[in-house]
Amino acid sequence: MKAGVIGVGYLGKYHAQKYRAMEDVELVGVADIDPDAAQAIAKENGCLAFTDYRELLELVDAVSVVVPTSYHYAVALDCIEAGVDMLMEKPITTTVAEADEIIEKAAEHDLILQVGHLERFNPAVEAMLPSLTVPVFIESQRISTFKNRGVDVDVVLDLMIHDIDIILNIIKSPLETIHTVGAPVVTDFTDIANARLIFENGATANVTVSRISRNNTRRMRIFQPGSFINVDFANRKVTTLHLKKNEFMANGMPKQDIVVSTFPKGDALNSEILHFVENVRNRTVPLVSGKEGRRALDVALQVIEQIKDHQKLGVYAEDMSGR
Predict the structure, then answer these.
(1) According to CATH, what is the number of the domain 120-266+300-313?
(2) pTM for this one?
(3) Which part of the chain is the Gfo/Idh/MocA-like oxidoreductase N-terminal domain (predicted)?
(4) pLDDT value at position 126?
(5) DSSP assignment, residue 71?
(6) Spatial separation of the C-alpha atoms in residues 200 and 247, rounded to whole Å
């Protein structure tokens, strides 16, 4: 299989390395508008360098698209025109309308469109799935220290969209309402946000993200009838608590079986790209197809829009008007 990478910035260079190391995959080339970056990554991986990605599309079967989100739509259309399968980094596009169009066109041309929601390939996430029954309440926290990267977008698209994707995948009910709060603190975009997602079946998810903390925390707690699951993403650990029927402690609380599972450090990006390669070879539907990427984007954009509406009326707007 002949592969390429479009965009070799911080994340794209790792895509190139993964393809280069895979058996039965030839990394033909990389493309970037920065010629120095393209040449450096090409030299490192023994492949061709391009500043015009359309020249690369003529030589490959599949590509990773790792350019800024605002360029996803245009690059996707060129990939479809060239008949090239795509692993599109998240979010899929900047608008739902753009996502709908590339999903439809990719399907018309029988092309693979996979969206890079990396956390789906986190060993801890994969390990919790067999323990899920009917989640009724989910609490998610994704808190990180400030990094001068990815700050050209809202923290909802930067971080929260990961958890939105996971939650929409495990709650098998349509989303009914969204309640949000959020604020810009360091950048011109929202840096800290909370969203409460309420589903038609009554399940609720409370999602908090921040990129201005002094510490890093990534965890999800899932409550369901008779059991509780705590997922520690950063430490790849899953704690599952099952309540015993008809067995009680002295205080009346049901006795519990507690299972703690830990996993060695994995390589989620490598697993994601391997999954993409298998889908290209076998013409199978990705775990995170365009449909799932579009669904997560839709909810994320609703969260962003609601936060903006609140900011226009709230304390932040008053503060800005007084400067």
Answers:
(1) 3.30.360.10
(2) 0.90
(3) 2-117
(4) 86
(5) G
(6) 33
